[in-house]
Amino acid sequence: MNKHPSQALATFAAELSFELVPDAVIRRAEDLMLDWLGSVLAARSARPVRSIQRFTEMMGPADGPSEVLTSRRTTSPVFAALVNAAASHYVEQDDVHNGSVFHPAAVVFAPALATAQALGASGKQLLTAVVAGYEVGIRVGEFLGRSHYRTFHTTATAGTLAAAAAVGRLLGLSPAQMLHAFGSAGTQSAGVWEFLRDAADSKQLHCAHAAASGLMSAYLAQDGFTGAARVLEGAQGLGVGMSTDADPARLIDGLGTRWALAETSFKFHASCRHTHPAADALLQVMSRNGLKAGDIERVVTHVHQGAVDVLGRVVVPATVHQGKFSMGTVLGLIAVHGRAGLTEFDRDFLAPEVAGFRDKVMMELDREVDTAYPARWIGKVSVTTTDGRTLSGRVDEPKGDPGNTLSRAEIEDKMKRLTQYGEAATPQEAQALCDRIWSLAGEPRVGRLLG
Fold this sequence. Notes:
By secondary structure, this protein is an alpha+beta fold. It is built from 20 helices and six strands. α5 crosses α10 (202-222).
């Protein structure tokens, strides 16, 4: 009997083994884990993360097998996943999969690491689980389609199933149990973009909830708890309730032959990914023509509809985090400083020179860019100079995309800078983390990462 799409996806996740995953995909999973660790540690002191951390300290056990990376305390797997996932997405430096518009690391590594530490799993088992989580989450995001993203934060929604797949693989769920885990995870999927209008903290809650709910769903399934068999493509499933262009075929696209994890991009700028193509294109124009911020009269960014939907809500940012969703602010930092990093955002997101440049920037929907999205995120800008010239910039693969990726040396450098920013580890500890992750597949037991 042919399996329906959800069933086929659950079977794939349950039966995936380390030996079935190509070496290049395992290596990329290690790269993504180190990149994720930097993002978590950079958010060590962030107010919303501290708030969620305090909640877990009130509610959870004071010690346990799983590590809270931001505090170096230990607790139960669910509460460790909750905090680490909340921290993952705060500085806007975590990875993104273009086609699904989904940030997998935040909702996969946090529950997978917490569970692996609780179970005493090996490095190979952890990496296999991570691959399962990425492959499931990305396909769910692609299934939900472009219409979903207009209202829903895909990392929060598809993320519940990604987390369930990763934890379910570590628990050794059968295909039937994995399908039940998907059902329980899917019915808890939530997270809408309205928070951006108020500069609210919801994005951290989105990741925390997805990671913890997915973890809970997998553990419940192991205990016999049942969930909807077609929670994704069913008559009253997520596809119907959260999308107008859901495509069930995307759930099983290339299972076992197409490794979606390897398509994932690293973030170079510390801002919403929708700003990156334009930022790279502006850098290109300024570099080629020797321009400074004061030489520029106007910038038109030619963008896809998703950028308009997300970034168009922020006109004058009220917080650093909201500034990362302001196209004008990001390009202002690029124009003034040549980069839009964490330090530049903290110090200058409302600086007069940056704010003045912000008002020169506008977004314009571009048919070519919109047609290519989300498979490709093309950056196009038209720059008008103060002396009357019109200059064009175009970047087909922003820095960090698979075709313009970061080397391991660049990933290490980024991770160390993020760790230093968060004052979360000494340089020696950061280097030790790098060495540890590069050899993770050889570890017989995943223990604590920080002393």
